[in-house]
Amino acid sequence: MNYKFSERLSTFSSSAVREILKLTQKKSIISFAGGLPAEEHFPVAAIGEAFERVVKEGNKAFQYGLTEGFLPLRESICRWMVHKGVTVTPDDMLITTGSQQAIDLLTRIYIDKGDVILVERPTYLSALQVFRSYGATLVSVETDRDGMVLEDLEAKLKQYRPKLAYVIPTFSNPTGNAWSLERRLGTIKLCREHDTLILEDDPYGELKFGDATVKYPSLFSLDQHPNGSCVVYTSTFSKTVAPGLRTGWVMGDPEIIRNMARAKQAADLQSSTLDQQTLYQLMTHFDLDGHIEFVRKEYEKRMRQMAQLLKGQNWPGVNWAEPKGGMFFWVELPEGVNTSDLLKTAVDLGVAFVPGVSFYAEESKFNTMRLNFTHNDAEATITGMERLSKAMDTVLVK
Amino acid sequence: MNYKFSERLSTFSSSAVREILKLTQKKSIISFAGGLPAEEHFPVAAIGEAFERVVKEGNKAFQYGLTEGFLPLRESICRWMVHKGVTVTPDDMLITTGSQQAIDLLTRIYIDKGDVILVERPTYLSALQVFRSYGATLVSVETDRDGMVLEDLEAKLKQYRPKLAYVIPTFSNPTGNAWSLERRLGTIKLCREHDTLILEDDPYGELKFGDATVKYPSLFSLDQHPNGSCVVYTSTFSKTVAPGLRTGWVMGDPEIIRNMARAKQAADLQSSTLDQQTLYQLMTHFDLDGHIEFVRKEYEKRMRQMAQLLKGQNWPGVNWAEPKGGMFFWVELPEGVNTSDLLKTAVDLGVAFVPGVSFYAEESKFNTMRLNFTHNDAEATITGMERLSKAMDTVLVK
User: Fold this and answer.
1) Distance between CA atoms of residues A95 and A75, nearest Å
2) Which residues contact A206 (CB under 8 A, 6 or more apart)?
3) Contacts of B280 (CB under 8 A, 6+ apart)
4) Where do the coiled-coil regions begin and end (chains A, B) (predicted)?
5) Cα–Cα distance for residue pair B359/B175, rounded to 1 Å
6) What angle, 0 to 180 degrees and rounded to 10, lies between the N-to-C axes of helices A273-285 and A71-81?
């Protein structure tokens, strides 16, 4: 039997993160690699109670449901989004199997082979993987600590006439940066002028560190919405409740949402009814905002610990900045160091990270790495940093 | 803002079934439309106990997991498949968000625009939707009560050199037919000779009626497997446990499975960890086979009741046959009757079915309909058939 795979298959590179995740499940290494939340802070007792309520609701809770998602959950999310300056109805949203699926579905209904998508430099690697699988041409926009550089964005909008711009303006994966208000407003204005749709990926928006009075309003909230919005917004419960419930959502103009629902019918008919019902009960009977605040504080502590440890290293020629939120430190090593090679040494020494190369759409910087600070406790973080330090010694000239 | 949707979008017709499902959630009509299992028979207490065990396993159960699926669940499914004559390891399988996702992922890695896919006539409408969305050219093979007609299959293999053949050999959706052993073996032989991969969709295999000694071995079990198999096999817990846990699986040559896993990373990273862990606990501590036998008997009762009611109608020029298993009756009305028009009348009278038109890849028969017999209890079925009878009176010449 000769298998005849599609041309498309060659575009699916296996994600470095997922491959490493496999590795770390097997070996007793300390991983700063995966974007894993701290499982000891999952509200498991509350999830258990929520599930009991689902069972009491009766057997219908385990039946097939609507492709668009369980209506009471969509209503709860709509109410919850009001505190983020977003006013939508359940018809303007779709429940997805994690926000990863929202990226896939929007690409499916919006992008043909050869269409251009603008992305940040660097950006989320699994989004790049999706875009490539649909044959999109990826163009990076210069990105600094405040977001996409507007002059470069405008030049690339004019040059490439992209259909879509994919951004993570609030606590970027991988950099932890947050866009300034000026860049947010400027990006919306420019993209609207050029009829370029923005996909705003916001998994980390709730995990803000530092000055509580500083706000980072979503692009979706800043633009007219939902009707005629030039922004499609996606978020998830994976970082605020638990990834195992595999539930995200996407909001936007109802025409876009309807079309994404049609694509979702083909993709998987619907997301898990059980997860959706459980999350609905959790949102109704549990202090989710209180829990998020608790997790946020814990992650800020872990971030500060890792910042302290990084500072202590005094690695020559190594640059990093304190993330404003989210889950990651982004570290730039001296030119010439290849962090993919370094990873092998690191894993031998019992520690893992993600080499930065996968986060670039083009002209990858081989001397970068992403470090997760949310998953390990204080002790493991100290040990992991000691091991990483040994690995770094093999490539840094002191 | 002018939205610029992909060309692909025009291929996503909204599924008639899903639209009707929406309708029936709103109105108090009796629905023979959706392929819904009987929710009163879901093993909800056992699912509840399984979930409690998951919670006891600790917080890690709610963390991100492997794209390939929760290993203990894959191991359990492998052991369970032995009674179906299938011997595979967890590396030869992937957990999916329902078997619908298996259809989508295989198409994604195997089919380019213009590639030909052979299908039965008629066949599962949501598979047609997936194939069309990837730009496949669909060709129907003549199909009778015993399966694909081998002469027509051979002619079409030669004429179209298809990459894939999609089949539901055991209790077809929509017809309830089961292929004979001769057709099963003949199809494998012919497809192997022409290097055409077979996607065997088997959601209903456990729901067999009539003579218990008659066996319908899966194509996958009849072919060499998993290495070098010309069959990729998919099934689901939706019909044997509950659809709300949204978990299916796919088995095949490990190269195909690895490639499907790469596509799944992009599509949704992984399926619900909670659902997978719950199903693992259920398979370990619950008599799943006993439960399946109970459900099978219940469905056979319901099938016989509906057969009795259909017989009693004596509708002139209307043909149907008793299904050998599964969930559906397939009814052919006199030429010239359009069941899509009839559906409007039927819904006004308080009953729904699926017009057959959507189950054809080409040259649709407009005078067909699919009736589900598993979802309604005896009383609702009687009332629904009375209503359907009134609707039929408007189109049948007595």
Assistant:
1) 11
2) A239, A240, A292, A296
3) B70, B72, B73, B76
4) none
5) 10
6) 50
CA distance A398 to chain B (A): 38
Is the predicted pLDDT of residue A14 greater than 70, yes or no? no
CA atoms within 13 A on the CB side of B300: 15
Residue B357 has a CB neighbour count (10 Å cut-off) of: 18
Q: How many Cβ contacts (< 8 angstroms) between chains A and B?
A: 266
Parts of chain B with a pLDDT under 50 = none
Decide: helix, strand or coil at residue A106: helix
Domains, chain A, in order of start with CATH, read 7-43+290-393 (3.90.1150.10), 44-285 (3.40.640.10)
| Cross-chain Cβ contact B3/A104 below 8 Å | no
- Mutation pick from B107, B262, B280, B281 vs chain A, by most beta carbons of A within 10 Å, is B262
Q: How far is B393 from chain A (nearest CA, A)?
A: 32
pLDDT digits (tens, 9 = 90+) for B215-230: 999 999 999 999 999 9
State whether residue A291 is helix, strand or coil. Answer: helix
Q: What value of ipTM does the predicted structure carry?
A: 0.95
**Cα distance from A63 to chain B (closest Cα, Å)?**
5
Please give the average per-residue pLDDT across A118-139, as a whole number: 96
User: What is the predicted pLDDT for the residue at A24?
Assistant: 67
Among B115, B265, B281, the strongest candidate for a mutation testing the A interface, having the largest count of A CBs within 10 A, is: B265
Distance of CA B151 to the CA centre of its chain: 25
Could you write out the DSSP letters of every residue in A332-391?
Answer: EPPTT--HHHHHHHHHHTTEE-EEGGGG-SSS--TTEEEEE-SSS-HHHHHHHHHHHHHH
- Residue A205 banded pLDDT, cuts 50, 70, 90: very high
pLDDT band at residue A397 under the 50/70/90 scheme: confident
- CB-based contact A259 B195, cutoff 8 Å: no
* pLDDT computed for residue A260 by the predictor: 97
What is the Cβ-side half-sphere exposure of residue A35, based on CA atoms within 13 angstroms? 25
Residue A275: which of B58, B126, B275 has the nearest Cβ?
Answer: B275
Q: What is the pLDDT of residues B270-302, one digit of tens each?
A: 999 999 999 999 999 999 999 999 999 999 999
For the cut 80, the answer to whether the pLDDT of residue A314 exceeds it is: yes
- Tokens 């660097």, residue? A122
Distances in Å between the alpha carbon of B17 and those of A231, A315, B14, B91?
31, 61, 9, 34
CA angle (A390 as vertex; A388, A395 as ends), nearest 5: 95
Phi/psi of residue B357, nearest 5 degrees: -50, -35
Contacts of A103 (CB under 8 A, 6+ apart): A126, A127, A130, A166, A199, A201, A234
Answer whether A56's CB lies under 8 Å from A212's CB: no
Question: Does residue A28 surpass a pLDDT of 90?
Answer: no
Contacts of B213 (CB under 8 A, 6+ apart): none
CA distance B204 to chain A (A): 16
Question: Do B266 and A12 lie within an 8 Å CB cutoff?
Answer: yes
Mark yes or no for CB contact B104/A163 under 8 Å: no
Residue A20 has pLDDT above 80, yes or no: no
DSSP sequence for A294-306? HHHHHHHHHHHHH
